[in-house]
């Protein structure tokens, strides 16, 4: 989306409301991206697929490319912690640095520590939008846990704690395959 493509602009409008991007838009973006040369040696998808239909389409895309998923990582976090994490994020209008009002507060309120630019809360990080996103997750995305468990590639970790600890748990789980 940072490239400003038409597909990216369409996706951003949905995400700003906290809604899922329609499958036809998302699938086209993923298909285009995975076909690029730098994805041939491996890739990591974050936030896709968001529903079982997208997962099935992803399998078809990967089959066409002669690829497969090695693992799907599920990060388990308490819902109130998710709300706190996301609604507390602030982004810099100048350099896109991300800080957090609790976990990484700026030295001066609403001022980026990196460049001095203005920090703002993204539309999709407002608490009511985050809660709506969680409702959408339970309805549309949560069924993927069973989908990938049935495929034998689901890896689940506890994702509460400092970023470096969660990262270490994720790396260890992916190395061990469980």
What is shown here, in short?
This protein has 178 residues and is mostly helical.
Can you tell me about this structure?
The protein has helices spanning 6-16, 23-34, 52-65, 79-87, 127-141, 143-151, 163-176; strands at 72-76, 89-92, 98-100, 119-120, 154-158. It is mainly α and 178 residues long. Helix 1 packs across helix 2, helix 2 runs parallel beside helix 3 and helix 4 (79-87) crosses helix 5. The radius of gyration is 18 Å and the shape is globular. The chain has a 3-stranded antiparallel sheet with strand order 3-2-4. A two-stranded parallel sheet has the order 1-5. It is built from 7 helices and 5 strands, in the order H-H-H-E-H-E-E-E-H-H-E-H. Strand 2 (89-92) and strand 3 form a beta hairpin. It has 2 domains: 1-69, no CATH class; 70-178, 3-Layer(aba) Sandwich (Rossmann fold). The longest helix is centred in the last third of the chain and has 15 residues, at 127-141.
CATH fold description of the largest domain: Rossmann fold
Q: What integer is the average pLDDT?
A: 93
**How would you sum up the global shape?**
globular
CATH homologous superfamily (4th level) name of the largest domain: P-loop containing nucleotide triphosphate hydrolases
| The CATH architecture of the largest domain | 3-Layer(aba) Sandwich
- Report strand %: 5-15%
Query: How is the biggest beta sheet arranged?
Result: 3 strands, antiparallel
Number of continuous helical runs: 7
Family: Belongs to the adenylate kinase family.
Enzyme class: transferase
EC number: 2.7.4.3
Domain Adenylate kinase active site lid: 89-124
């Amino acid at each position: 989306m940072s490239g400003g493509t038409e597909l990216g602009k369409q996706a951003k409008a949905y995400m700003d409301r906290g809604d899922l991007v329609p499958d036809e838009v998302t699938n086209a973006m993923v298909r285009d991206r995975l076909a690029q040369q730098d994805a041939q040696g491996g890739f990591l998808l974050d936030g896709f697929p968001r529903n079982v239909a997208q997962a099935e389409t992803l399998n078809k895309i990967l089959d066409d490319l002669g690829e497969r998923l090695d693992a799907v990582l599920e990060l388990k976090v308490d819902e109130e912690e998710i709300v706190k994490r996301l609604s507390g994020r602030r982004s810099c209008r100048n350099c896109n640095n991300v800080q957090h009002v609790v976990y990484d507060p700026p030295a001066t309120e609403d001022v980026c520590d990196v460049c001095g630019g203005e920090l703002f809360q993204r539309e999709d990080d407002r608490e009511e939008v985050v809660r709506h996103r969680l409702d959408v997750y339970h309805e549309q995305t949560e069924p993927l846990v069973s989908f990938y468990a049935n495929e034998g590639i689901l890896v689940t970790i506890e994702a509460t704690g400092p970023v470096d600890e969660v990262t270490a748990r994720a790396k260890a789980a992916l190395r061990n395959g469980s």
